[in-house]
Amino acid sequence: xxxxxxxxxxGVLEGxxxxxxxxxxxFGGMWAVGLPVAAVFSLLMPAWGxxxxxCGLLLGEIAVTSIAAVAVAxxxxxxxxxxxxxxxxxxxxAAGDGQGARCxxxxxxxxxxDVEDGPAIALLADEGRGSAVQSVDRERGPLSA
Length: 145
Known about the structure:
Elements: H1 2-15, H2 19-44, H3 49-73, H4 77-94, E1 101-105, E2 109-113, E3 120-126, E4 130-137, E5 141-142
Antiparallel strand pairs: 1-2, 3-4, 4-5
């Protein structure tokens, strides 16, 4: 259970482009907590044996999850959302052929988003909800998920 929750937090960090926070969580949790505790429990406390190894690694996973959760909790979500919108607009525009779709973005304004072939990406911003990304086919309009 701890590993699955920690993986979700690590995915959020990766999606937000926070590799340094991911590295800190993994290093701090598994190398600074998990490995030393597992070594102490399994090697210096012989009665624990394999159970000590597992307990140490479990404590490491809990530490990874905790560190990643704190990093995610400290996000400025509006700033993260704006950065993702800006990066997506830049990436789609860079791949363009001049045949783009219209793009409504909160701070970026209305832009033409160019793509080579296939569906374009329209970025829709709403004052209360941040930004959303939606695929748009040039001929048929928005694509359903």
